[in-house]
Amino acid sequence: MKVQPLRIAGGLLVILFGLWAGLRVYEGQAPKRAAVPVAPAAGVPVPAGEASPATPSDFEAPFDSAVGTALAPGGQVLPKIPEHLPEFSLGDRLGKPTSIATWHGKSLIINFWATWCAPCRHEMPLLQSIRREWRDRNVEVVGIAVDYRDKVVAYADELKIAYPLLIGEDDALDVARAFGVDSPAFPFTVFTDQRGEVVALFVGELHKTQADLILSVVRSLDQNRVQLPEARHTIADGLRSLSAEQPT
To answer: pLDDT by residue (tens digit) across 68-91?
Structure first.
């Protein structure tokens, strides 16, 4: 008789159905795991105002004039950055829309940062010092905070940031993308000459040796002592040399 095989097959179906039903119940009752924020350096933008885990983002990415890009450690090529300063507007501390063209004719140090970014905080005293030292030479520092306005204003007041600030959330991330940086690794800093040409894009915490090198070349550009391709090569080579001198 074939009754026994049928009973066995039926029993197996009951067992499989029970396992499937149990799994569905477990999935429905199990607590959802919170999404872990991914650091910008990993290629996923961090939403404005959301905390980011610590990340080894303190590295330099000099402009490589041969390919028109910024370079990251390990040979990774970041997206192509523009030759000229893009046009954009963001709100100032009071929320008033302010165009980057407000500083037309000046060499600019445009620093992208957020309140949750520790390296950003570390480099702010240097940016304040650079502004005092270079302001009489037609250089201005402009901070672009990718964060909530109330947090930025309170943070800026606490640190007594004196240089101009532009503030935004998704719109500030759009500005970062206009510089070719789709997944920002904060901080990053753009240097332009007085003609609005993008001379260098530096990713990571800026230090005095790198800033002095870049600004000295920008100064030569503004005085027409070098041309832009030569300036970019000089900065890229100089930053690589400084990086090689750093203890490992």
So the answer is: 455 554 555 555 778 899 999 999
Q: What letters, b where the CB count within 10 A reaches 16 and e where it falls short, cover 120-141?
A: bbebbebbbebbeebeeeebbb
Tell the residue number behind the tokens 């503004």, with chain if given.
Answer: 222
Reported as a single tens digit per residue, the pLDDT across 118-139 is: 999 999 999 999 999 999 999 9
Contacts with 80 (C-beta within 8 Å, 6 or more apart), sequence order: 67, 68, 69, 180
Between CA 36 and CA 91 the distance in angstroms is 30
Q: What is the 3-state secondary structure (H, E, C) of the chain?
A: CCHHHHHHHHHHHHHHHHHHHHHHHHHHHCCCCCCCCCCHHHCCCCCCCCCCCCCCCCCCCCEECCCCEEECHHHCEEEECCCECCCCEEECCCCCEEEHHHHCCCEEEEEEECCCCHHHHHHHHHHHHHHHHHHHHCEEEEEEEECCHHHHHHHHHHHCCCCCEEEECHHHHHHHHHCCCCCCCCCEEEEECCCCEEEEEEECCCCHHHHHHHHHHHHHHHCCCCCHHHHHHHHHHHHHHHHHHCCC
pLDDT at 215 over 50: yes
The pTM of the full predicted model, rounded to 2 decimals, is 0.72
CATH number of the structural domain 41-245 = 3.40.30.10
Domain boundaries along the sequence of the chain: 1-33, 41-245
Nearest to 163 by CA among 124, 120, 210: 124
- By the 10 Å C-beta count (0-12 exposed, 13-18 middle, 19+ buried), 84 is classed as exposed
